[in-house]
Design brief:
This protein is α+β, with helices and mostly antiparallel strands. It has helices at 22-26, 56-68, 76-85, 93-97, 113-116, 131-178, 215-225, 228-238, 240-244, 261-271, 292-350, 355-385, 391-416, 425-462, 484-514, and strands at 183-193, 272-277, 282-289, 465-471. Mean pLDDT is 77; it is low at 15-45, 99-118, 196-201 and 203-207. This is Smc_2 protein.
């Protein structure tokens, strides 16, 4: 069983029939090129492209053919319509093959003669350009590019002049013509600590006299001079707000007469600049005013305020140290005097100046009597040793011994027993001993309190801070501000940077939107 080949049709037009045509069979077999002399026109009865069911591929093909023939169409359907008006069928095979690179003619032999008898009319094409024409076209393109670049550069110059040049010119005019000259008074001072008598005895002596020793004090003074308290004192003493409310000052730097205290303080922080160098421990002060003399007065007043603040920083510490040491010394002295009064009172009451002396005297008397008593007893023993002792002498010796015994007993009784008028010597000795020991203790405590008081005085002297002015405030003889050239250049850079950032932002947004 054999299969007959069947040809498939592509891009068929509505109403087109693929049945064998008798006209084609009866047509002469003359070459197709003989019929191309008379261009074929599109039939007047071509259907409207909008009513045809054209595929997307057909529409793209029609757009490409229209672009090749130089036809500007608003849409793909418009391209089909204009091509048909010119007698070009965009869906003919010959027109589609024009979009494909030319190949050898080996496939032309296989095309049936009937299909080559009525080819699509050839559109007039541009004549090939010679070297001169090509050079002219290139020059025209280059001129167009140059014109576009010049136009863009002109627009860029206008934008730069409006957004950068004009604000810079206004700023330069203000700084050079309108701005009120300001005078800055510079001064430096250092906060020093008192010299130490034994500076090398502790670790603190290693940093004495350096910037590290007074760093906290310098920072505290710096904060105080930039505080509202310093601004209030300066305004009350020298009229800071009244000076900067002068109508002769330009409006941008002038303080309104009805300005609030906060607005005045903001201007104060702008006109008073304080810097601290931690390596050298030097505080630098700059005060700006519209008059050089007023500027120097402001600076000197601020230095005086700083000196008062430096003295107040350690005044409480020094006062507490001295107050505690003084109270301890006074208390020790008072108790020592009370102990001394107690000793004197006991001495007057007991009639004894020194209990030790009285006791020593009593023991001396007892020792003497005991010695005499021992001698009398020895003498009596010698008398009794005789065979015939002298009775009178024996009686005298015995009487003497009895007297000495009575005296010895009385003296010993006086050491412990109190009589009718006075206390016993032991009691007197005990009371005086306690009183004297208390007196000695109070005297020792008084000595320690005196040493503590002296130590506190030395430590208080060490805590004293001194503000030494290394460069006193001197009125300047020429204006310090504004710096017209520097400020103008800075304004130019700022406006240029703003314009550049805005341009980059707009370009990025435009690219994102178009993408």
């Amino acid at each position: 069983m054999t299969m007959h080949p069947r040809a498939r049709a592509f891009r068929t037009r509505p109403g087109q029939s693929f049945a064998p045509s008798t006209a084609i069979a009866a047509a002469p077999s003359a070459p197709a090129v003989q019929d191309t002399s008379a261009p074929a026109t599109a039939p007047a009865t071509d259907p409207d492209p909008t009513t045809e069911a054209l595929t997307g591929r057909q529409l793209r093909m029609a757009r490409r053919i229209a672009q090749k023939h130089g036809i500007k169409a608003a849409s793909d359907l418009d391209a089909v319509r204009q091509l048909r008006e010119r007698g070009i069928d965009p869906f003919e095979r010959a027109n589609m093959l024009q979009l494909v690179p030319n190949a050898p003619d080996e496939g032309a032999a296989g095309v049936p003669a009937a299909r080559r008898e009525a080819p699509a009319p050839a559109m007039p094409t541009d004549a090939p350009l010679d070297d001169a024409g090509r050079a002219a076209e290139i020059m025209e393109i280059q001129r167009d590019i140059v014109r576009r670049r010049r136009r863009r550069l002109a627009l860029l110059g206008v934008r730069l002049a409006f957004f950068v040049g004009l604000p810079t010119a206004i700023a330069g005019y203000y700084y050079n013509v309108i701005a009120t000259p300001m005078y800055a008074t510079n001064s430096t001072f250092i906060i020093q600590q008192a010299d130490l008598a034994a500076g090398g005895a502790n670790l603190g002596g290693l940093f004495a006299g350096t910037g590290l020793a007074s760093q906290q004090d310098s920072i505290a003074v710096q904060d105080y001079l930039l505080s509202r308290e310093a601004y209030r004192r300066l305004d009350e003493d020298l009229g800071f707000r009244a000076h900067f409310s002068d109508p002769d000052i330009d409006p941008l730097q002038r303080l309104d007469t009805d300005a609030t205290r906060e607005q005045g303080y903001e201007l104060y922080t702008d006109m008073v600049q304080i810097g601290y160098d931690p390596t050298e421990g030097v505080v630098k002060l700059e005060v700006v005013a519209a008059d050089p003399t007023v500027s120097a007065r402001f600076s000197q007043s601020l230095i005086d305020y700083a000196e008062e603040r430096v003295d107040q920083l350690t005044a409480r510490l020094r006062g507490d140290q001295m107050e505690g040491a003084s109270d301890s010394f006074e208390e020790a002295e008072r108790k020592m005097l009370e102990a001394q009064s107690r000793v004197v009172q006991l001495q007057e009451q007991l009639g004894v100046v020194s209990a030790e002396a009285e006791l020593s005297n009593a023991y001396g008397q007892i020792g003497t009597i005991e010695t005499q008593l021992r001698e009398e007893r020895l003498r009596l023993d010698e008398l009794l040793a005789n065979r015939r002792p002298n009775q009178t002498r024996v009686d005298i010796a015995r009487s003497r011994i009895a007297q000495l015994d009575q005296e010895l007993a009385r003296l010993r009784e006086g050491l412990t027993d109190a009589g009718t008028d006075a206390a016993s010597l032991a009691r007197v000795t005990a009371e005086l001993g306690v009183a004297q020991m208390d007196l000695q203790t109070r005297q020792l405590l008084l000595q320690q309190a005196a040493q503590q008081l002296e130590t506190a005085r030395i430590e208080a002297n060490r805590q004293v801070r001194y503000l030494s002015t290394s460069r006193p405030p001197v009125p300047p003889d020429q204006p310090t501000y504004p710096k017209a050239f520097e400020n103008t250049v800075l304004a130019f850079l700022i406006f240029g940077a703003i314009y550049l950032m805005i341009s980059l932002t707009v370009a990025i947004l435009r690219e994102q939107v178009s993408g």
